[in-house]
Write a structure and sequence with these properties.
This protein is of the alpha/beta class and 263 residues long. Helices cover 47% and strands 14% of the residues. The longest helix has 28 residues, at 106-133.
Length: 263
């Protein structure tokens, strides 16, 4: 069933990982997908793969840290396709210097806020008038459980993800009467190629112990949820943050330790 036939969708950070899986899912649902990524070669590669599979997709370079470039990007998409119906704010910046509060410079705060919050806000700003003109639209913002539960590190990352959740709610409240829905997904550990390369077998097993599902998450798990949230079937869901973490944050932190102690 192609429930998104005729829709114009933009997926940021779609050259790999969750973004790539989302672009594929929305294409299968019938949307024309614009793959927006600073990795222009990677984006072109994904678009070519989707076109070879019979879908409608194109790649456009986008640097979310550049507000003027975001406006030009949105104008060109609207000029080429007549408007924008769906935005998936998925692109993210991480940084190995993102540690504890007392160790983070003002410059790092600025750099990460630019991509993780201000960029998505500016892209949303550019898309909303087109969505209203077309009778409505849908946003999904890919946040993180790090925006809900704090860690011993990744302070900037968690803070920007919490702010993205607040941005989503604001869009939902301010533009819902004009047909626009806005929701967040807060993934836990998802085994993107980058994540899989980060953790060794021992760490993955430790993480698996703290999940309540048999398996760890895959990009396709998040993509399926995004496809639903931008579809007509989710028209009554807005302002919501859907945690997708395999039960990681649902359990008492001691569950895994008690299970291990019990043998």
């Amino acid at each position: 069933m192609q429930e998104l036939s005729g829709k114009i969708a933009i997926v940021t950070g779609a050259a790999s990982g969750i973004g790539k899986a989302t672009a594929e899912a929305l294409c299968v649902a019938g949307a024309l997908v614009v793959i927006a990524d600073i990795d222009s070669r990677g984006g072109q590669r994904v678009a070519e793969e989707l076109r070879k599979a019979g879908h409608t997709a194109e790649a456009r370079s986008l640097d979310l840290a550049d507000s003027s470039a975001i406006a030009v990007f949105a104008d060109r998409v609207i000029a080429a396709h007549g408007g924008i119906d769906i935005i998936v704010n998925n692109a993210v910046r991480t940084d190995p210097r993102d540690g504890q509060v007392a160790d983070i410079s003002a410059g790092l705060w600025s750099d990460m806020l630019a991509v993780n919050l201000i960029g998505p806000a500016q892209l949303s700003r550019c898309a909303i008038p087109s969505m209203i003109q077309r009778g409505g639209g849908a946003f999904v913002h890919v946040a993180s459980v790090a925006g809900i539960r704090s860690e011993d590190t990744r302070t900037c990352y968690g803070t920007t993800k919490a702010a993205l959740i607040a941005l989503s709610r604001s869009i939902a409240v301010q533009y819902g009467k004009q047909g626009i829905t806005s929701n967040c997904i807060a993934p836990g550990l998802i085994l993107t190629p980058a994540a899989a390369a980060t953790f060794d077998a021992h760490m993955l097993e430790l993480l698996r112990d703290h999940h309540m599902t048999r398996d760890l998450g895959q990009p396709e798990d998040i993509a399926a949820m995004i496809r639903f949230l931008v579809s007509p079937a989710a028209r009554f869901i807005t302002g919501h943050t859907l945690v997708a973490d395999g039960g990681f944050t649902a359990s008492n932190p001691m569950v895994a330790a008690f299970r291990k102690a019990a043998g």
